[in-house]
């Protein structure tokens, strides 16, 4: 458009309609903050909402709560039923979560099977806990997916602004910490953030660093605990136990090492390292008189049951001249509960190769008896909780424990399984278990776990004592 100025000059101005451009920008922004599977806002969109909500809360005196939700069995469903079933589970999860929320609450999918919720209220703590418990109950109900009833549950963490956090990222982080605390305590439930979780997070980070350093610097060791015949106390085998021997901190708690390494995925590397050392130790023990028939029991995490496991084990046994019949693969009910075809295939291969299978912590699971029938189990290890109740508590508890142990022995023997008692600490327990007909045992009464040098020295001393004893 041309216009003439007072001085007679002509100026030219151009007008452009930018409505379409603005609409396109709006669409692109909406797409950038939206999760395409569920239609919810994504992590970026949720963090934006958190920032805005905190500004608003500061102005009007409201409190905010952030709920961090993680599904407990989603990976298993994805692995066993496929990604289409996994996507359907996520969509049903969103429907059930939304049914527990108010219209003004914000829900986001942060990625994978993680969700977050933002709630604003004057007394937000009680409301957030109520909503969280309602979500846990809703997600615990079976989901009909493609003709199957699939079961998920949720671990939920809650944090509150300004009580627990001073900003948006801190609020989300503290809710995440609370969720992990719930997951470590048994999953399927809700936890509200508290300051002790910061100490737990620092400890966890420290242990993660020690695990990585231990793998790099070769600090992991295979300690051995003898397994003896309950008839005469003769050593029949050894259980290999993982130990992280830090050069400054000393021995670190094995339970925490194993738990964290399973969560981070480093358990496979640790397992490979310990398995190789344990078999090497058995080869060294086999050089002593009277030890060539002893066996080695090795614990395996569910995450170690890969199709390559039998080949790894076969190569190690060949290298150290150990017969497969001298190896016992110890598994817990948790491994069998996965009902994973790959686990079944690996157990079958190990059994056909000649290794024996031991079911560890027997008697603590709800369906252990069925596993004796469904899997190639050769050895049943009675959980140490039975040993404690044999010699402590009320007379009625002791009597019931004896009956349960006797029942386990009878069924196991009828199924052709050897029975091993764990956690024997007194001579009275030993004598009673021997009378009850159990085959083998292990525990502090006989020996604590020890490194290979100590074990070799103990075995050599016993051998010399027997040799010098009068006929």
What portion of the residues fall into strands of 2 or more residues?
Answer: 15-25%
Query: Cα-atom Rg, whole angstroms?
Result: 30 Å
| CATH architect. name of the largest domain | Alpha-Beta Barrel
Low-confidence regions: none
Morphology: elongated
Secondary-structure class: alpha/beta
Structure commentary:
There is one protein chain. The chain is of the alpha/beta class. The protein folds into two domains: 30-194, Reverse transcriptase/Diguanylate cyclase domain (Alpha-Beta Plaits), CATH 3.30.70.270; 202-468, TIM Barrel, CATH 3.20.20.450. The chain has helices spanning 19-32, 43-60, 74-81, 83-99, 124-140, 168-184, 196-217, 254-264, 267-285, 309-320, 333-337, 341-353, 368-374, 384-390, 395-414, 427-435, 452-468, and strands at residues 2-4, 10-12, 63-71, 106-111, 114-121, 143-145, 148-150, 154-161, 189-192, 220-229, 235-246, 250-251, 295-299, 327-331, 356-362, 379-382, 418-421, 440-441. It has an eight-stranded mixed β-barrel, surrounded by six helices. Helix 9 runs parallel beside helix 10 (309-320). It is elongated, with a radius of gyration of 30 Å. The termini are far apart.
């Amino acid at each position: 458009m041309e216009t003439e100025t007072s001085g007679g000059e002509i100026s030219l101005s151009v007008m452009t309609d930018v409505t379409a451009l603005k609409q396109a920008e709006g669409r692109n922004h909406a797409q950038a903050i939206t999760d395409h599977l569920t239609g919810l806002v994504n992590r970026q969109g949720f963090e934006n909402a958190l920032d805005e909500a905190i500004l608003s809360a500061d102005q009007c005196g409201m409190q905010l709560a952030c709920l961090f939700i993680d599904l407990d069995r989603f990976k298993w469903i994805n692995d066993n039923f496929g990604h289409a079933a996994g996507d359907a589970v996520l969509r049903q999860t969103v429907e059930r979560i939304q049914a527990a929320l108010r219209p003004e609450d914000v829900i986001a999918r942060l990625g994978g099977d993680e969700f977050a919720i933002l709630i604003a209220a004057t007394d937000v703590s009680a409301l957030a806990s109520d909503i969280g418990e309602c979500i846990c109950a809703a997600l615990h109900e079976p989901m009909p997916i493609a003709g199957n009833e699939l079961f998920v549950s949720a671990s939920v963490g809650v944090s509150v602004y300004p009580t627990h956090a001073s900003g948006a990222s801190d609020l989300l982080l503290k809710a995440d910490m609370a969720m992990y605390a719930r997951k470590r305590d048994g999953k399927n439930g809700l936890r509200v953030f508290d300051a002790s979780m910061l100490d737990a997070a620092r400890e966890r980070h420290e242990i993660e660093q020690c695990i990585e350093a231990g793998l790099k610097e070769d600090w992991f060791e295979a300690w051995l605990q003898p397994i003896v015949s309950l008839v005469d106390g003769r050593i029949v085998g050894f259980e290999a136990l993982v130990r992280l021997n830090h050069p400054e901190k000393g021995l670190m708690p094995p339970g925490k090492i194993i738990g964290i390494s399973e969560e981070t995925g480093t358990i496979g590397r640790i397992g490979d390292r310990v398995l190789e050392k344990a078999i090497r130790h058995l080869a060294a023990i086999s050089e002593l008189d009277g030890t060539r028939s002893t066996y080695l029991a090795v614990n395996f995490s569910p995450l170690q049951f890969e199709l390559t496991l039998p080949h790894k084990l076969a190569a190690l046994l060949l290298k150290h001249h150990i017969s497969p019949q001298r190896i016992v693969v110890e598994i817990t009910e948790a491994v069998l509960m996965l009902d994973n075809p790959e686990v079944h295939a690996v157990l079958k291969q190990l059994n056909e190769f000649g290794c024996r299978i031991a079911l560890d912590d027997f008697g603590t699971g709800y369906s252990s008896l069925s596993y004796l029938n469904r899997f190639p189990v050769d050895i049943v290890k009675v959980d140490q909780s039975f040993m404690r109740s044999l010699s402590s508590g009320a007379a009625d508890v002791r009597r019931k424990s004896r009956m349960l142990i006797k029942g386990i022995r009878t069924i196991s023997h009828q199924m052709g399984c050897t029975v091993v008692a764990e956690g024997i600490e007194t001579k009275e327990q030993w004598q009673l278990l021997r009378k009850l007909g159990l085959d083998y045992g292990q525990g502090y009464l006989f020996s604590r776990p020890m490194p290979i040098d100590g074990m070799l020295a103990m075995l050599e001393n016993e051998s010399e004592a027997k040799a010098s004893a009068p006929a």
